[in-house]
Design a protein that fits this description.
This protein is α/β, with parallel strands linked by helices. Helix content is 41%, strand content 11%. It is built from 9 helices and 8 strands. The site of iron/sulfur cluster has 6 residues, from α5.
Length: 318
Amino acid sequence: MNAPADPTILQPATALDGATTGPAARTRAERETLKLEKRLARQVGQAIADFNMIEEGDRVMVCLSGGKDSYGLLDILLKLQARAPVRFELVAVNLDQKQPGFPAEVLPGYLRQLGIEHHIETQDTYSIVKAKIPEGKTTCSLCSRLRRGILYSVARRLKCNKIALGHHRDDMLQTFFLNMFFGGKLKGMPPKLTSDNGEFIVIRPLAYVAESDLVAWAEHRQFPIIPCNLCGSQENLQRKQVGEMLRQWQRQHPGRIESMFTALQNVVPSHLMDGALHDFKHLQATGVADENGDKAFDEEVFAPPAGVPFASVTRVSA
Ligand code: SF4
C-alpha cells in the first residue's frame, strides 16, 4: 500500500501522459497536472454553486470508502474549503464493515496525517449480510441498506446536516441509463436531494467531474486505494455493461457523453409523455406563437459537438 501524499502540496508530476524522463516531458506532465487540478477545482466549485450544495455554517459529512472517487472528493473539498467565501466544516467518515482483508489502518492513518476531523465507524455488516443472504445470491441491496442506516446515525451523532458522496458525472449517466433500460424510468442520480428519511441533504459535488480525471488525480496524489471487491460480491454486471456502452459511444462519437450529460440539465416535459409533468389532457390552443410548440413535420438540425465535422450533423423529426 502506498504512503499517503501530503494533501496540501501539489506533488511533483507523476507524468499523467506516461512520460517520466527528460526535462521537456517533466514540464509537459507538470503542466497537465496543474490543468487537471484547476479543472477539478473549477468543476466542483461550479457544481456547488449551481446547486447551492454548501452554505454558511454547514457541517458536511464526507463519506470515504477508500476508493479513488471519495479520496478525490475529500481532497478537492479541502482545497475549496481553504479559499471559500463561506465557512463550513468537513468531517471525513469511513464505515469499516469488517470485510475480510479490509486494511483497517489505512484510512485512519491517512486522515490522521491530513490532520482533519474524522471518524471511523466499525460495524460488522459483513457477518449480518452473510448470515441473511443465501450463498450465491447478490448481497448488495441488504449491505447498502444497512450502510445507509448506519451512515445516517453517524451523521446524526456527529451533528452533520449534509452528507457528501463521491459519485461523479459518469456514475450519474450510468444510473440514468440503468433506470431507463431496466427500470422503465427517466431518472438519474441527483446532484442534491433530501435523504430518504428526510433528515439530511445529500450532495454530490463531483457531479460535473469525469471519472477519467479522478483516475488521473488519484494516481498523481498516490491515494492509498483500498480495493472495492473485498466482500467477494459480484460486480454489478448491468452497471459495468452500461459503463462500457457509454465509453464505446464516446470513442465512436467524441462529445456524446458531454451532450448526454448536458441533456440531463435540459429537460422538456412537453416533449416527453409524462402526464404528471405536462397536462396533455387539458391542452388548449392559445393562439399565441410559441417557439417551443410543436413544429409538425419540420426537422430539427443539430450542430455537431465541438471538434466533430459538420458531415456528422444529425436531423431528427421534431
Ligand atoms: S459490493 Fe460488497 S460492500 Fe459493496 S454494496 Fe455490494 S456487498 Fe456491500
